[in-house]
Write the C-alpha cells for this entry.
Amino acid sequence: MLHFAYDGSINGDWVSHYAVQLASAQHDRTLRLIHVCAGQIPPAMLEDKLGRIRRECEQQRIRLIEEILSPAEHDLESVIRSAVPAGPENFLLCGTPARAPGHGELRETIAGWLLRSGHCNILAVRVVHPGLLGSPRRLLIPVTERPDGFRSGMPFLRLFAPQVTRLHILLIARVGRRRFLRMSHELTERLLAPGQAYCERVEQDIVEQLGLGSEVMDAHVVVSDQVGREILIAAHRTKSRLVYLGVSERHPAERFLFGDPVEQILRDASCDVAIYRGAA
C-alpha cells in the first residue's frame, strides 16, 4: 500500500499530485493519507485542502483512506513511523523543503529522519514545477556501482514506469580534485569502461523487471570530481523533469553530511527531485 505523509503545506499540496499518480500504479489503487494534526493549520483550511485531494482521487478512481493523528510529545516522526507498517511491501511518500537554504538541512526534517530509518520504501519529493501534477515523465536516474545493482531503486520506479516516456541513467566515476586535474585521456577511458558495463546491466534489469523498452532509455558515464554539479548539468542537458536520487542503505547518515550532493541538488535543481531509500 502507498502511504502519504501529508503536512498540509503548499509543498505538501504539490506532492499530493505525486501521491495520486503513484497510487494509480498500485494494484489496489489505494492511497492512505496520514496527517499529523499539530495545530498549525486551521481546521477549515485543512478541510478545503483535503477536499481537493478527495476530488482528484475520485477523478483518478483512487480509493482514499484518511487518517488524522495527534502528535505524541511533538515527535512527528515517531507518530508517522508507528502509523505505517514496516517492510518492503509498504511505500511511504513525503515532501522535503522547497528550498533548503544551506547544507545539512534535509537531515533535520521529517523526510530526513524517515529516510535514515529504512522503515519501508520511502520517497521524499521536492516539487519545483507544480504544473506537472505529479507526472514528470522524463526521469534522470543517477546510479552508483553496487554489487546488488539497482535493487533499492526498483520499488518506486515501478510506480513511475507507466508514465515514463524517457529515462536517462547517469553514472559518475568520482575522483579526487588533484587527480582529476591531472588525468590523461587514456586513464579517463579506463575509468569509463566499468561504468558503461554497469549501466548496461541496470538498463537490462529495468527492461526485464519493469517492462520499459530499451528505446526509451539511454545511459551516460562521466568522470568528475564534483558529483552534484554533474547531476545538475545532466538534468539540464537531458531536459529531465525529475531527478530520481537514492541515498545509501548501509550508511545513510553519512550521505547527509556537509557538502553532500543530495543537499546541493535539492537546493539548485531546476526540476523536481525525488530521494528514495529502499526498505532496510
